[in-house]
Amino acid sequence: MLESQVSAAIHDFALSLHQLWEKQSEEHQQSSSSFYLSRDYERRVRSFYKERGRNYSNGTAASGVAGLDELEKNIGFMKKRLEKQRIILVQAVKEVNDAASSSLRIGMMSIFEALESFCLERLKGYQQIRNPNNGGKI
Fold this sequence. Notes:
Layout: H1 2-51, E1 56-57, E2 60-61, H2 70-130
Antiparallel strand pairs: 1-2
């Protein structure tokens, strides 16, 4: 019975680690997506200002606002999408950090508690075999 408790604790911990790995994978995908989206956004904004003969540096236009055309609308849409992607990324990072800190601590505690019970029972059994007349007391 105690062997199954130890086995179950290790199995639960392994499942927890697998879930953590999946969350980290999701966070990595969100990070990559955010990076490529940001890079594409910057490229399109630079292209937009270059086509209109305006200077663009460090994310700001050096001159006034251009008229609304299809490219500018697309850039606005991309900016909103990029902002949403960044929010999703921040949430994914937070979830991974929370899961990592709690699952490792809780998982290891349950494994060691189950191992402690297992070892104590085995020690009692050994003592009873070693000294059958004392009832297991040394």
